[in-house]
Design brief:
- The complex is a heterodimer of chains A (about 325) and B (about 270).
- Chain A is of the alpha/beta class and about 325 residues long.
- Chain B is of the alpha/beta class.
- Chain B has two domains: about 220 residues, HUPs (Rossmann fold, 3-Layer(aba) Sandwich), CATH 3.40.50.620; about 30 residues, no CATH class.
- The model of chain B has no long low-confidence stretch (mean pLDDT about 95).
- Classes of the chains: A alpha/beta (about 325), B alpha/beta (about 270).
Chain lengths: ~325, ~270
């Protein structure tokens, strides 16, 4: 068998464009490919996606493998894993990277095991060890309390990368790349799952992932009522309201508001954490914020270790007063 | 219905972050004194998912756990919640591996059990946070998998699963046998009942050594692993929070507002 060479990204799409995570993966992949002196490729799996290839090339891909098939219209584990396996057997990359997303979480472990490898999930740093050309994969473990650096003994190295952990390159429309079409060759009978329905729980206003200011509440809010106060502050700051896991698990707010390891990963300019103790699993979701502002009645709360500014006090007194003063200072 | 649930004993993830320590010489976590390990919380939700299917359809729930020094009070918890049988893959040969060796051993144990309609796992373990063993078992057994489930409904030979997505959920149908990984959106696991605790006390786990599950020793534990952990470390925190105070809480809040505007964080 030929030597494993190159870095391959598994792309995802949103509204007919390359998803943000795929641009981040191409950014990270470009650096790895350069350090290896090898090629960066991207595999497109879907239906009607060939037209997006120039965008991937502008973001750093040397080659785009397009597998376009009606059976690939929506993500189905069996179909996508079979197609990716076929492409990988043909191209024989050294490294395969996907996003730590709904798709990547499901797809990547099955793909890795089919290739007789194991994946390293949710990496926040990737680098090539000089000399050995080994991929060093850093990922948070123990709910974010620790980090581990892994290498793989088998090729290809398969990993997923956390959303917003990597930086995309500035697009360069003059970059040249090659587009290669590969047939899916799928047997519809081998696809054992069927999506009956896709339910989107609409969130009003700005999405958490896009917000520059987020006001989040935790267990200490004590119930659903206080979240109205947080939503009001978020609206004033033209931001979004979020929550740690306990308010979601208790049904005080919708699950889609959850920021954390198993919820949304956000990186706003300002993250106001109200009555949130600062568990590692929550910090895994908001640790990338440029400025964390903590409001908590417990002066020893872990969140203060992460914050730039903090106020010790009862949110019922602090948040309304903060909103009133900000309204005045910002002239809104 | 024959249901299998895979559970893992982990250091308590609810322990205060300050008590978390690493032995850098061995790249292992030092168990915090006085904080016993627990069943990984998502795995408890997997047990709850299995119990809900059993409540609706009847059947038998077999729980499997892999490791060494498995505390009986900890690993018996699924029995006290209502599971029927506990199998422990407890042997030094099983440990110090990776997700590949763990999935292989669990899949071999499941093959030995033979009869199964559904396999439940937690969406990810609270220690490694990887979330691959479930999918990997399905891959080895050649059965379909649905990950990150919040609701499971069994109808005849098919299972309907609500899978959590970034902006809502998908309703996915698949044939059985199937493997499903369970997320916290399923809801709180039930408490153990007194009757359950008494029954669990009397029930002894079945121990399977590698030979019992016809496992290839070269594919287990440290001998079989594909991944090498070079380093385990705690990220350094800068910890330079400026505490904003005032005459009272409202005054402190007003001072915070001023600071945020002065620092041009809000405009």
């Amino acid at each position: 068998m030929a030597e494993n060479k190159g870095v391959m990204i598994v792309a995802e799409f949103l509204n007919g464009k390359l998803a943000a995570i795929s641009k981040e993966l191409l950014g990270a992949g470009s650096k790895l490919a350069k350090d290896l002196g090898e090629e960066l490729s991207v595999v497109f799996i879907g239906e009607g996606i060939a037209g997006i290839a120039p965008e991937a090339i502008a973001q750093g891909a040397d080659k785009v493998y397009v597998v376009d098939d009606v059976l690939l219209k929506e993500y189905l584990t069996d179909a996508y894993v079979a197609v990716a396996e076929k492409v990988i057997q043909q191209v024989n990359p050294r490294i395969v990277l996907a996003g730590q997303t709904t798709l990547g979480r499901d797809f990547t472990p099955r793909l890795a095991f089919r290739l007789n490898a194991a994946a390293t999930m949710d990496c926040i740093d990737l680098s090539i060890e000089a000399g050995t050309k080994k991929l060093l994969m850093t990922k948070p473990v123990y709910g974010g309390n620790a980090r581990a650096i892994f290498t793989s003994e088998v090729l290809p190295n398969v990993a997923t990368v956390r959303v917003k952990a990597m930086t995309a390159l500035a697009p360069d429309a003059s970059r040249k790349g090659e587009v290669v079409t590969i047939t899916a060759g799928l047997d519809a009978a081998a696809i054992r799952t069927n999506v009956l329905q896709k339910v989107v729980q609409e969130v009003q206003g700005i999405k958490l992932e896009d917000a520059t200011v987020i006001v989040s509440g935790g267990r200490g809010m004590g119930g659903p009522e206080g979240f109205k106060q947080l939503a009001s502050l978020a609206k004033l700051l033209r931001g979004a309201a979020g929550a740690s896991r306990p308010p979601c698990d208790s049904g005080w707010v919708p699950e889609t508001m959850q920021v954390g390891l198993t919820g949304k990963i956000v990186s706003p300019d300002v993250y106001i954490a109200v009555a949130i103790s600062g568990s590692s699993q929550h910090l895994a979701g908001c640790g990338g914020s440029k400025n964390i502002i903590a409001i908590n009645c417990d002066a020893e709360a872990n969140i203060f270790k992460e914050a730039r500014f903090g106020v010790v006090g009862d949110w019922k007194k602090v948040v309304p007063a903060l909103e009133t003063k900000l309204k005045e200072l910002l002239g809104r | 219905m024959n249901i299998i649930v895979c559970v893992k004993q982990v250091p308590d993830p609810e322990a205060p972050p300050a008590s978390f320590k690493i032995d850098s010489a061995t790249n292992k976590v030092i168990p915090p004194p006085g904080v016993p390990p627990v069943i990984s919380p998502f795995d408890e939700q997997a047990v709850e998912a299995a119990l809900r299917v059993k409540d609706a359809k009847g059947g038998k729930i077999t729980v499997i756990s892999l490791g060494v020094n498995l505390l009986r009070d900890v690993v018996k918890k699924p029995l006290s919640m209502g599971a029927d049988e506990l199998i422990l893959l407890e042997d030094p040969a099983y440990v110090d591996g990776d997700s590949w060796t763990t999935a292989y051993a669990l899949a071999m144990a499941i093959k030995k059990i033979g009869q199964f309609d559904l396999i439940f796992c937690g969406r990810q373990a609270a220690d490694t946070d990887a979330g691959q063993v479930g999918s990997a078992i399905a891959e080895i057994l050649g059965i379909p998998s649905v990950t990150v489930a919040r609701k499971i409904e069994v109808n005849e030979s098919k299972v309907k699963v609500e899978k959590v997505t970034a902006d809502g959920f998908d309703v996915i149908e698949t044939s059985m046998p199937a493997l499903i990984t369970v997320s916290n959106e399923l809801g709180e696991p039930r408490y153990a009942t007194i009757k359950g605790i008494m029954a669990a006390k009397r029930k002894e786990p079945i121990i399977w050594k590698p030979a019992d599950i016809s496992a290839d020793p070269a594919k287990l534990g440290a001998a079989g692993k594909r991944m090498a952990m070079l380093k385990l470390f705690q990220p350094v925190k800068e910890g330079k929070c400026e505490m904003v105070t005032g005459e009272n809480e409202e005054d402190a809040a007003a001072n915070l507002a001023k600071k945020l505007v002065e620092a041009k964080l809000l405009s």
